[in-house]
Amino acid sequence: MNYRHIYHAGNFADVLKHAVLARLIDYLKLKDKPFRVIDTHAGIGVYDLSSEEAQKTGEWHGGVGKLLDIDLPKAVAPLLAPYLDTVRQLNASSNVRLYPGSPKISRMLLRKEDRLSLMELHPADYETLHANFADDFQTRVTHLDGWLALNAHLPPKEKRGLVLVDPPFEEPNEYERLVDGLAKAWRKFPTGVYCLWYPLKRSAPIKDFMKALHALEIPKMLSVELSVKSEREDGLTGSGLVVVNPPFTLKGEMDVLLSFLKEKLAQDRFASTRNVWIRGE
Ligand code: SAM
């Protein structure tokens, strides 16, 4: 396990993932009934952007750093507000030093009656995560393989909830694992909202991945993608999210949000977006 999210916290991929996560939680809050957020690959929860690791890559400058000091267009502001507000709230001054990972964003958005389950397998990251949520009775932190947890924790006893699956993609078979994991999880909790992260890079098997997802016959599944540069470039060129059981307005919102993020976060003229139903409509 070599992956450490501190090198990437707040980058363009985090922006898309965390903006959608916050939006999905806001939707769950429209109903009074309590819900649970299950975050299977949680990371450490909060990232220090002034740390040596974060400064080494400086990736956040090309992500959240481009969004904090600008006036957002009217149509975009409410879509980014739930996410950007968590970043601002975490930082007392206008100088952003701390960046909230998915656990912190979820936690900041929960109501009193809602719950959060976090899994992290890296021993040191688990310790940090655990310390970050010590004494928080709404949050349960487990040192566990997120793929196993996905099965063991579903369905949540609240019977409503959001499952975020955000693996590090260190292994070549992670796309297949995501499909298998979703298939098993959905059988146990078909009404859950799922948000699965995947990387876009040269030679990523995206067509096969989409085909395999389509074959699952899950009725409502949206794919949302933002590429910030040409797929011929090295490394991560973009990222995507599969959203299962999305709120019905999400697709329209994503048209607006993706086109804005593309304009702001593009690194070359080949930046592009995709917002399509894998199944459903
Ligand atoms: N979700 C976090 C966020 O948005 O702030 C970032 C998570 S990072 C992309 C992936 C995390 O998964 C890393 O912290 C890594 O240590 C952890 N991890 C790797 N394999 C795991 C596994 N099998 N089960 C649980 N966590 C795992």
From the structure above, extract its key features.
281 residues; alpha/beta; Rossmann fold; 8-stranded mixed β-sheet; two-stranded antiparallel ribbon; 9 helices; binds S-adenosylmethionine
Describe the structure.
The chain has 281 residues and is of the alpha/beta class. It has a single domain, classed as Rossmann fold (3-Layer(aba) Sandwich), CATH 3.40.50.150. 37% of the residues lie in helices and 20% in strands. It has helices spanning 12-28, 52-57, 77-90, 102-109, 123-132, 146-152, 174-188, 206-215, 250-265; strands spanning 36-39, 46-48, 98-100, 115-119, 139-142, 161-165, 193-201, 221-227, 236-244, 272-279. Helix 1 runs parallel beside helix 4 (102-109). The longest helix has 17 residues, at 12-28. The chain is globular and about 45 Å long. The protein starts with 11 loop residues before the first helix and ends with a strand. The model has no long low-confidence stretch (mean pLDDT 96). Residues 1, 3, 5, 17, 41-43, 101-102, 119-122, 125, 145-147, 166-168 line the site of S-adenosylmethionine.
Round the mean pLDDT to the nearest integer and report it.
Answer: 96
- Please compute the radius of gyration using only Cα atoms: 17 Å
| Distinct ligand kinds | S-adenosylmethionine
How helix-rich are the residues, as a percent range?
Answer: 25-40%
Can you tell me the residue ranges where pLDDT is under 50 for at least 5 consecutive residues? none
* Shape field: globular
CATH-scheme architecture? 3-Layer(aba) Sandwich
Strand segment count: 10
CATH C-level class: Alpha Beta
Tally of discrete structural domains: 1
CATH topology: Rossmann fold
* Content-based structural category: alpha/beta
Q: What's the order of the H and E elements?
A: HEEHHEHEHEHEHEHEEHE
Please state roughly what percent of the residues sit in beta strands, choosing from under 5%, 5-15%, 15-25%, 25-35%, 35-45% or over 45%. 15-25%
Distance between the termini: 38 Å
Strand numbers in spatial order across the main sheet: 5-4-1-6-7-9-8-10
